Amino acid sequence: MTMQRIKPHLPWITLLVLTAVVGVVDPNFLRPANLLSLAGDIVPLFIMALGLTFAIYIGGIDLSVQSMANMITVIASIYLASLGAWVAVLCIAAGFGLGMLSGFLTTRLFVPSFISTLAVGGVCFSVAQWLSGNRALNMDAEQRNATFGWMIGHTGIVPNELFLAAALLALCLFIERRTVLGRVLKAVGAGEPAAKASGINVGRYKMLAFAISGALAAIAGLLFSVKLSGGAPTIANGFLLPAIVAVLVGGTPLTGGVGGVLNTLIGTLIVAVIRASMLYLGIEATQQQMLFGLVLIAAIALTIDRSKLRTVK
Amino acid sequence: MKLTRENVIRWAPALVLLGLVVLFAAINPAFLSQRNLARIALASTPAMMVALGVTFIIVMGSIDLSMEGVVSLCAVLFCLLFLRLGGSLGAGAWLAIPAILLCGAFFGWLTGMVHVRLQIPSFMASLAMGFVGTGAAVLVTGGDIVRIEDDVFRALLTWRILGFPLMVYIAAALVLLAWFIQNHTTLGRNFYAVGGGEELAHASGVNVRRVRLAGFALAGVFYAIAAIFQVARLGQAESVTGANLMFVAITSVVVGGVALWGGIGGVLNAVVGVLIVNVIGNGMVVIGLPNYLQDGLLGVLVIIAVVLSTDRRLVSFAK
């Protein structure tokens, strides 16, 4: 077995080993109820990472996902009262539209995606501050329960968030495996000039990839604000790093082309286990950012396809 | 002078700055008052240092997104070391200054190593190292605020010459130093060689890896200076001392006319860019606009600047 052949299997092996190690240290960790509640807690992050996968899959990046989620928590908190369930449509449309804008800037105006999404993130932050007046907002608890209570309840011992996550995963998997869009995104990730040369309208599909990323970041923000019953312009800060880590640890490299949404599922679970294990092993939440930064570097170094980078800038 | 694309790009930032100053002064003459100008200069100082550092890296065609973490970490370490060494600039605590500059250089070099040795694109290598820096700052402080109340050190802020704080003059001197490094040292020329075409630079005998490492280390020194200025300005350090500097600094450098593709623009562009960004921030408050519009406006500006500086004949796609 060469490294080349083991590589695609590394993510789930890592997940199993980590889970086993934590399980040995604390057998309580492996109780189904504990695992399910852990999984339920990570769902907003998973949804965000799911969207981010599309941006990374084509060799780009979306640094606006965190600001997007921040803005959506504010929008959801404000307009729940007047729009009811329709606020979900507003949130997703806003995410889709702004993602589309990032995609437009990247594909049509040749602004590298890390700058275009950073800029769109700045716009999101301004909108969030403007709408909220820079305060933390609360949702009306009764109305939240009536409209979105189904998102955060339990069915048996299974948190309802997991059903939402499963539905979105299935949708993304369908897009990736069974649609023209999915095939084109793979072609773009594998080699953009070749995809273009074979007559594909690459720009339009790349824009859609960024739009999906924005829309899913919006759903993540919506779910997060429903969970917390409120919103604020910086409430989701701290999501960006673990979301990028989840995608890359799962095995979708920064250079795109391989991996996909199932990998992100595994990557998110790895993040969840690392987080939980650090608490079990007595490492506090404040110390985790440094560790995740190092994990990120290791994950990129292991997965990146250097043959695609003529010069590394 | 002919009205070519190159000339427009070269002079646009300076004209934009001039236009903004005239606009704000026309709406509210208090904008040009000596006190307000001092306020703008003071607010610009830390961002200016960060912008100078990242300019060298952007000129090389790379990018550095680690400044928030590096500035936070350096600020926190500086305060702790300063207090450990006696808490007064006269009593040996001055040693904290060279120590923290070395620390910044080391962290920058480390980012460079991650980028060059592990062959990771610089935007991601530096983003990850920025997270590591912020995480380390949290770790060192445990989330607390560290204060410095030394009168001699705070003279950077409190000692005013012609109305401007001392640190503004030091910052001006450092701008000259950066300009000197860029135009009159081998290293400075090599940044342009690498930015203009890495393979060509390599073929003509430039050790590209070493130049990149030196660039990141040099940027780290400037981030450390920014950290010291932040501490002098605020009198304290915590793990969010560097917050928002990344967006402001990158925007400034790009808006000032340094091309993201490398090889074009330099220190003077960064200076104009920082002034544009801070004049906008200050001017919006002076004419009574809410300052939360600032990030959105900067986002729009940076897009316009990148689009204007992109030669569409040479670029076939962007990642």
Could you characterize what this model shows?
Chain B: It is a multi-pass membrane protein. Chain B: InterPro entries: ABC_transp_permease (IPR001851). Chain B: It is found in: Cell membrane. The complex is a heterodimer of chains A (313) and B (319). Chain A has 313 residues and is mostly helical. Helices cover 72% and strands 3% of the residues of chain A. Chain A has a single domain (41-303), classed as ABC transporter involved in vitamin B12 uptake, BtuC (Orthogonal Bundle), CATH 1.10.3470. Chain A has helices spanning 3-6, 10-25, 32-41, 43-57, 65-83, 87-107, 113-132, 141-152, 161-178, 180-190, 192-197, 202-228, 240-250, 261-280, 288-303, and strands spanning 137-138, 154-155, 158-159, 230-231. A two-stranded antiparallel sheet of chain A has the order 1-4. In chain A, strands 2-3 form a two-stranded antiparallel sheet. The mean pLDDT of chain A is 93. Chain B is built from 13 helices and four strands. Chain B is 71% helix and 3% strand. The longest helix of chain B has 27 residues, at 208-234. Chain B has a domain at 50-243 and 260-266. In chain B, the strands form two sheets. Chain B has a two-stranded antiparallel ribbon. Chain B has a two-stranded antiparallel ribbon with strand order 2-3. Chain B is mostly helical and 319 residues long. The chains are: A mainly alpha (313), B mainly alpha (319). At the A-B interface, helix 6, helix 7, helix 11 and helix 15 of A face helix 4, helix 5, helix 11 and helix 13 of B.
